[in-house]
Design a protein that fits this description.
The complex is a heteropentamer of chains A (249), B (327), C (306), D (227) and E (355). Chain C has 306 residues and is mainly alpha-helical. Chain C has one domain (3-221). Helices cover 74% and strands 3% of the residues of chain C. Chain C is built from 11 helices and 2 strands. A two-stranded antiparallel ribbon of chain C has the order 1-2. In chain C, strand 1 and strand 2 form a beta hairpin. The longest helix of chain C is centred in the first third of the chain and has 32 residues, at 3-34. Chain C starts with a helix and ends in a 10-residue tail after the last helix. With 227 residues, chain D is α/β, with parallel strands linked by helices. Chain D has helices at residues 42-49, 71-76, 94-101, 109-115, 117-121, 132-145, 162-177, 189-195, 218-225, and strands at 2-13, 16-27, 31-35, 56-61, 64-65, 79-82, 150-154, 181-185, 198-203, 206-212. In chain D, strand 7, helix 7 (162-177) and strand 8 (181-185) form a beta-alpha-beta unit. In chain D, helix 3 (94-101) packs parallel to helix 6 and helix 4 packs across helix 6. Chain D is globular and about 45 Å long. Chain E has 355 residues and is α/β, with parallel strands linked by helices. Helix content of chain E is 40%, strand content 21%. Chain E has helices at residues 15-28, 46-58, 71-83, 96-99, 116-127, 141-153, 172-181, 193-205, 220-226, 246-259, 265-283, 289-298, and strands spanning 2-8, 35-41, 64-66, 87-90, 107-109, 133-138, 160-164, 185-188, 211-214, 234-237, 309-310, 316-328, 331-344. In chain E, strand 4 (87-90), helix 4 and strand 5 form a beta-alpha-beta unit. In chain E, helix 2 runs parallel beside helix 3 (71-83). The longest helix of chain E is centred in the C-terminal third of the chain and has 19 residues, at 265-283. The chains are: A alpha/beta (249), B mainly alpha (327), C mainly alpha (306), D alpha/beta (227), E alpha/beta (355). Chains in contact: A-B, A-D, B-C, B-E, C-D, C-E. Chains C and E meet through helix 1, helix 4, helix 10 and helix 11 of C and helix 1, strand 7, helix 7, helix 8 and helix 9 of E. The structure holds adenosine-5'-triphosphate (ATP) (2 copies) and magnesium ion (MG) (2 copies). Residues 44-45, 87, 173 of chain A line the site of one magnesium ion (MG). Chain D: Residues 4-227 form the ABC transporter domain. Chain D: One of its GO terms (biological process) is L-amino acid transport.
Amino acid sequence: MPDSVLSTHELHKAFGALRASEGISIRLLHGEIHAIIGPNGAGKSTLIAQICGSLRPDSGRVTFLGRDVTALPTEARARMGLARTFQTSALAMDQTVMQNVLLGALGASGRPWRFLSRVARDAGLRDTAEAALLETGLQDLARLRTAELSHGQRRQLEVAVALTQAPRAFVMDEPMAGLGAEGSRHLTGFLDRLRTRAPILLVEHDMDAVFALADRITVLVYGRVIATGSVEDIRADPLVRDAYLGDGA
Amino acid sequence: MNREWLLNAALLAGLVVVPGWAVWADEPFTIMLATRAVIFALAAAGLNIALGLGGLVSLGHAVFFGIGGYAMGVLASHAQNYTPLYDGVFTIQGTKSMPVIWLAAAVTSGLAAWLIGVLSLRTSGAYFIMITLAFGQMAYFFAISWPAYGGEDGLSIYVRNGFPGLNTLDPIQFYGLCLAWLCLVLWGYARLRRSPFGLALDSARQVPDRVRAVGLDPRRLQLVALVLSGAVTGLAGALFADLNRFVSPSMLSWQMSGEIIVFVIIGGVARLFGPVAGAVFYVMMEHWLGGISDYWQIFLGLVLLAVVLFGRGGLIGMICGKGRPDA
Amino acid sequence: MSPILLAEQILNGLQSGVMLFLMAAGLTLIFGVMGLINLAHGSLYMVGAFAAAAVAGATGSFLLALIAALAAAAAAGAMVELLVIRRLYARDHLDQVLATFALILIFSEGTRWLFGSFPLYLDIPPWLAGTVMLPGGIEYAAYRLALIGAGLAVAAGLWWMNARTRLGIQIRAGENDREMIAALGVDISKLYTLVFAIGAALAGLAGALVGPIQSVQIGMGEPVLILAFVVIVIGGIGSVRGALVGGLLVGLTDTLGRLLLPELFKLVTDASGAATIGSAFASMAIYILMAGVLIWKPTGLFGARA
Amino acid sequence: MTLLSLTQLTASYGATQALFGVDLDIAAGEAVAMMGRNGMGKTTTVRCICRMMPAQGTLVFDGQDLSRLPSHRAARLGIGLVPEGRRCFRDLSVAENLVAAARPGAWHAGRVERLFPRLGERRRQRAASLSGGEQQMLAIGRALMTNPRMLILDEATEGLAPTVRAEIWAAIATLKADGMAMLVIDKSLKELRGACDRAVILERGRSVWAGPMRALTTQVANTHLGL
Amino acid sequence: EVRVGMITTLSGGGASLGIDTRDGFLLGMKGQDDVEILVEDDQRKPDVAVQIADKMIQSDKVDVLTGIVWSNLAMAVVPSATAQGKFYLSTNAAPAQLAGKGCHPNYFAVSYQNDNLHEAAGAFAKSEGYTKPFIMAPNYPAGQDSLNGFKRFFDGDLAGEVYTQLGQTDFAAEIAQIRASGADSVFFFLPGGMGISFLKQYAGSGVGLPVLGPAFSFDQAILQAVGDAALGVKNGSNWSKDLEVPANADFVSAFQAEYGRLPSLYAAYGYDTAHLLISALDKADPSDADAFRAALKSADFDSVRGKFSFDTNQHPIQDIYIREVIKEGDIYTNKIVATALTDRSSAYVDDCSMK
Ligand SMILES: Nc1ncnc2c1ncn2[C@@H]1O[C@H](COP(=O)(O)OP(=O)(O)OP(=O)(O)O)[C@@H](O)[C@H]1O
Ligand SMILES: Nc1ncnc2c1ncn2[C@@H]1O[C@H](COP(=O)(O)OP(=O)(O)OP(=O)(O)O)[C@@H](O)[C@H]1O
Ligand SMILES: [Mg+2]
Ligand SMILES: [Mg+2]
């Protein structure tokens, strides 16, 4: 088995009668972008929640960097280098853009127990934060309150925070959602470069982006994996066309 | 921002000038009132750490205030009666020394905050308010019916405790001690707010999911905030007990918790000087309105109502405008 | 301890639970619906009791007194909403807490100013006076049985309103997203005034019903307020079912705790000492219960959210 | 006949001005696309129309001055909103979400469920636990329940699977065929071209271009939308 | 000129007691133009009471303090006030601690010692031949003292001894216990609204055993709120409006004329305190502490309670009566039916070092 950075083994999760994950096993390899696609309600976000630790699977395992992390809380996985973006932005609205990114850097530094020093004067944290803002093109907005950002700008900030975490793997839940055409194009190019830093597990409905980026695609329908393969395989798969892509793609 | 800075400076100056004037004019009662206000401000500044920075609306801060008070009462009463506090494997004597009492007050109330926090931080929002209230009520009823230290009658310490080099019975000297503590805590608060911990705590208040996702545990951050908060309020409790030379379960009552919260809210939540403005205002209102009529609390109610309705973010917000002042 | 005593105490626990529910119902409605921590709820309870006592004193009719209590409390509630609370929806919850705290002072001292400092007289109506014999030889006060009935009726009515009527659904929607429900064409301000009036009327009703067996006096609302908060928090905020279950749990815990804890301590210490220690723990029992429930279920028994 | 007409609309968030002069007209039965990069003021314009924030300038719907009306009165005139970010009532079930908005007319819960069968299947589920796409359907259904004369869709296809997106575009086409006026904000120019009669482009809080869809040349799109 | 500071409860739930204390005292002080009286509201909070006391002592330079209604407030104020050399005359609260070990030459209880009225009830229960009383009080020091006071003079078996919660409003559980206990009588000490609630609920329960209590729950102001439920109940008191003493008749009619209502116990204590003070001021000035103390101690005034003198611990020696609640026209009031204790001092007098 080629060594995978992140993998799940036979994950099962049910909400009452609804089976949101049924034996999901996927792997994220070094240097790749692995896209998860599937109809709405297929269980993509549920899968991500289990990978990141905010939801506990009924059975099955999650392995990250060769270690079984199924029992670890979210923050421990994050400290190991698992960075995520949220489908609905989770940002501190009352803080500035800079503060939101600084938080990411602070989390990564693992030293939050400093009570009397100025966080904004910590050169290490600042550098990480500024670099992340620069990469996402938000450097000019650093001093704005996050509440003042437009929807699209907030989506970019989500990515910026993940960048500060010195990640070993990214898990992104619909980072393109809400970005305009221009923004999507920009982000597509950016993710393309990002994969060399750490592999990306990408949930996305923007097929243009997915087809442009993904090394491999897994298709989830009703909690089950119905296909995994390269872009060409998936495009050609009649099952996938029927369940998800429709005739447009 | 600048305006707030000016207001803070004015408040601080007032806290120095007015008692100074009172010494000159021989108005010991004014000093007493100022001491009361400063101690309440200290208690509220403690709460402001949990409430303003951490978003933890604790309706049980009287527990810490009271524990601080009882730490003083218990230690001093044992010293007064020459009976050991604990006589077992080793012996603990009572004491009339303020520094030791302060340490004991801060440590015991911090411990209590840790215990309550571990249990309460599983909840949030209104549930957190109520579970802290529940712990407050438990402590209150326990203190009322526990006979060892006077029960509801409380505990009188006839003479104020001592501080090396000072005559604490002199009102202005005791006031100076209290003011020094307040300044120290406000300085700490100002630093804390901009510190790495402050940032993490503020984020834990707004977006706990995000904090987890970057590898921090929001509950532990909040627990530490609560412990700091409880310790400061406990310290204020010890000073308050010393001011009155008396401690009773009324320091543990939910009304007391309510008042501490009120100080913070009327002053301005999360404002550096919010607790100070709130406590000073409240004590002044209580004093001035008290003479108007038997029904003076109606006026107090109306004044408080006016502050809420017309001032966003409390008195400081009313004067200096809205917004969280950091960044 | 005889089985009859135990049975009677369980009945007492249920009855006091239902009574607590009555007080908590309006609170949970307002709290759950508008997200408002209404500390002045106890004052509205007091307003109800005073209105009832005044009208009963003047007319001698208990039914008129109940109507007066409902009307007075509802009017007071609507006025409070229109004049004060309405301006605070967009604000921090803490501002609302402070405002309702101020209202307590105004209501309490205002009532004292109107009615004097002395407790008022309000008695059980003759047609509910005395006791009835229940199966099993339990002699029980008729009025208390009536209270149980009234409480259960209120519970059913509230549940129906909340879950089954469009009004209830819109109110709950407004609780999630006030701006959005308005953008869909619902006059949420009017709804809120209505909810506040209903909640206040329930508090007033509770005050009037409890008045005949308790002391109608200034400050009567505050201890009740705390208990009512305990009840709705145990049950889960906003849940009428939760308030009922919470009320019963608190009523039973309190009543049985007062009976059993001193007995328990008698096993280890002398009678007088056991009475003090036992009752000390009994007075903490409901708070211990509440803390326990919240530690086990952080959003109460039937609550969905924080 | 003009249904909605905005002239020189300006608006601010506190001290920051977000709109500097937006002009927009929508005739009865007409579908208009509003376009612009991120943060250019599209949502802000929508919020002004729905009276969710104060605005200066003229704001007329069906001959009535909106600018003095509270939000719910504006909605009752016949403006249905599918807001950015869905904003379903989290603690209500799907069915209750629909009931909460209902006003008499041709649209009722049954019809909405026929439009989006998925909602029928999830009728008793709490909205908070719906998938993103399901929530989006619910938000559209909820707006339809108010039986509006004009529907505003702010990023209504965001986060939807291609198949569902196609369904929604189909639904939009149906609604338009029924004579419903529409203001559509979306990032897919291709779909907007198919669905809308006219377009308005916003840039930094101003309407900088308006005209019939076919006049929206690649060059215009390039300058204003960065395509 | 002499300054007297009165600290009492004038706002909130307990205000009626403080208002009566104040009114009785001011009535007694009428015409004393050379005495300046300062009255302040303690809000029933110990810390507020302490601070008012400090203010009166430090800024207003009062000579004498008085007026506190509640034991816990008295415990907060009295020790430090007397330690600063001020005189304190208690119009009501007189906790055990201040009668025994904590007695002080500058502290005089004009009212009673807290246990007195409960002792009277105990003595009366014994003389009535009750064999199994059920006794009940809230769980706090004054409550514990009250049951001990009762038991001090009632040495028989008890059917039950129950401590309720302070501030409790529902007594169904206790009433059921009474019913089941086989008691032949009930003694309770439940201050304020608790007593009203208990009596109403007890009357509706059909238990019907004879009830005994201290006067507080049957005081003039409270009785009207209890109504018929109180009729026939016996209560221990050292004062009653029908006490046949000339000073008392004057007091009752003067109080009614001045305030338009019947006086209560607290008013009577306030009035007596005023007269004690006047009698002492006639003989000595407070600045001469020893002379003033001696003047106070001689208790040379016409008490509305008839005979009145101070024991060595400076608590009264007085008769304690049993009253019964009756209805006079529309008004519920008390009449004396027995004398329970004659020349009663207090249980703690021997613990006091003053001889
Ligand atoms: N807490 C929950 N309780 C009940 N059902 C749930 C819960 N969370 C998710 N579901 C259901 O599980 C299914 C999968 O949801 P999930 O959010 O994982 O979908 P998704 O694939 O991310 O969809 P989308 O692309 O629309 O975001 C949905 O039908 C959803 O309604
Ligand atoms: N609550 C707010 N407070 C302050 N400024 C805001 C607020 N909301 C939006 N803004 C600012 O107003 C401008 C317009 O925002 P708006 O949300 O209308 O953009 P948009 O065109 O809808 O963008 P998007 O396509 O990203 O949704 C943005 O620059 C944004 O920074
Ligand atoms: Mg999803
Ligand atoms: Mg937008």
